Amino acid sequence: MIFSNKRIIIPLLIVVALLFPFIVPNQYYIYIMTLSFIWIIAVYGLNIVAGYTGYLSLAHAGFFAIGAYSMGILTTKVEMGFWLAFILSPIITMIIGLFIGLFALRTKEHFFAIYTLCVGYIIYLVIDKWESLTGGVRGLIGIPPLPNIGPIELSDPIYRYYFVLLILLLSIFVIYRIINSLVGRTFTAIRNSENLALALGISTTVNKLLAFVLSTFFAGLAGVLYAVFIRFLGPEISSTIIMFDLLTFLIVGGIGTFAGPVVGTLLIVWVSQSLQFLEEYRMLVFGPILTLMIIFSPYGIVGLFKNISAKRKVKKVKVPIETEKGA
Prior knowledge:
globular; 14 helices; ABC transporter involved in vitamin B12 uptake, BtuC; about 0% strand; mainly alpha; transmembrane helix; transmembrane; 2 strands
């Protein structure tokens, strides 16, 4: 199957992404695809901690908002240089994530999920009520757009599209190297059996904290890109609805799979665009879909394809063996 051959499918997807503005020269669709790339980065961050260590963080939308608001506050109120603020904002998010993780990871399983859900709501309340800093319900406006880099005008939607795509590809490359390193294998060992990982001498506390901090960094990076792309921020970007969206993207695509964030995000975003008339009822539409996906395909669409591919390989191995016995 072509879908199981990484050497074919990965370069093919990159080529399609590079040619997309020429294949679909529609400004609105380019806007949607650029926004999708930003969400994919955030979902990859969530996948590090939820998919590879098995700890479901429900504060991810809050960290996304911290990255976005850090960028907005540093550029509009502190009047810091754009690129310095661009670099510092994900780091600020990561530092806050470190302090929260030190307490959150004292809990396990569903207690961790409940704790992070409360943290996410606290972040939402801080953004909503601290009007002097965040603008409260009025929001934060006047965030500067991406500045030009030499002759490259990043204010142009197509150049902005390629800039976000470049950040996405770099993020995917870094996450791929992490997941396929010894550190990534320790994350998977913790997910499979934390007690066994402890018995093997793995410092589960340190590795869980590392996964959590890395997840907040990519959430903050996505938030920064969102801030300079939309240029207006409101408390709703840290709400439970955004958290539900990120979780839906991950579960539909395939939690704990490397391609899951890309598949789930692009599929749900474009399906949502086709069903805009159901916007008010999106929770009623995607809620049952999410439930059915968890029951019948817990590893999402990518996991389903992997299972089908694995079964085909088993059948191909069995047929020659049975033929040899018959002979």
